[in-house]
Every structure is written in C-alpha cells, then in structure tokens.
Amino acid sequence: LIRLASEARVIAVDALDVSGEPIGRLARAGVSELRFDGSSVSGRLGATHGMGAGIGDGRWAPGLADAAFEVGYTPWLPDWTPPGLTRGLPRVEPDVSYPSAPPAVVIAWTAADGSRVLLRQCPAPLASPDTGGRDARAVAVGDATAVLRGRGLVTLVWETPERAFGLQVRGASLGEETALRVARSISPDTPV
Question: What does pTM read for this prediction?
Fold first, then answer.
C-alpha cells in the first residue's frame, strides 16, 4: 500500500500478488485513472486510447448470451486465439471514450503463465478515434486502419462501420503478430 500526494507524477504502477510477483502493470507517463478492487489493478493511461485499456469498472456476465442481452448486440469473437489460452467470462463495462453508446463487452483469454489476449468492443463510431502518437503505427485489419502499439504490452485499436475494437496482448511469446492474427480473425460469423 502506498499513499501519494495528489500532485505526485506517477509514471508506472505494478500490481503484486501475495508472493510479491508482478501480476499487472500500468506503465508510461500519464496514468490518468487507477483502480484496485482487491484482486486486480486497472486504469487508463493518458498515453493510450481507452479501447486498448485493461479491465475497468463494470460487471461480470455469466456468459456471452447474458452479455449480449444486456448490451443489446452480439459480441464478435476471434476465430483464432493462441493455443493454451482459455476464454473467461465476459465483462460489461461503460465505455469512457463514448459514454452515450451501449456498453462495451470485454472478453479475456488467459493462460496460467499470465499471458492474456483481451478484446473490448462497442458499437461504432468512436467519439475519439485513436490518433496514434509515439510508439504507434498504422496497420491494416481487414478494410480498416488500426493503430498498433507494440512496446511491452501490445495494443491495437480499430473500427469498422459497425464496431469499434480494442485488443490488448501480453505474454512472453505473444506480440504484435499475435495481436494482428487475432484481430484479423474477428468476425460476426464466428460462433458465440
């Protein structure tokens, strides 16, 4: 536990498990939101887009059908995720970048070693599209132009005429190519 003065400039935050091993990190200058719910740390970095953020305020749904009913649309899923990752429960969250839209659905695929693929989606258009910036580059995801950031934690943000997506990939053997392969396999035709 640490208490900081409100004017302190935080450049990174590590979440540690009971043994002292890091289980999550918010890094880069500009941590604009930070939350801890007793089991995980989440927040929003000023240097990235909210669609590429980790798990934030919201509630867990018992399954995809329940999440779809709550948000009013059926989540699109990837046809491919890295072997060894298991899909978790969906989370319904308010989307800070577009608060007047229906809530976002967040789904994470995780492995025992801490590797994770996290997919956030909400109806398009975004109120504030990702403008890129330092350590970011434009890449193609289908017909859309996405913004990819690949230093440490890989994030990818893009939108189609129907949906806006944010993808986050972390893990020793996962990187930019994994993020692009997962993103390019997302389709409304993938069975839920």
Answer: 0.71
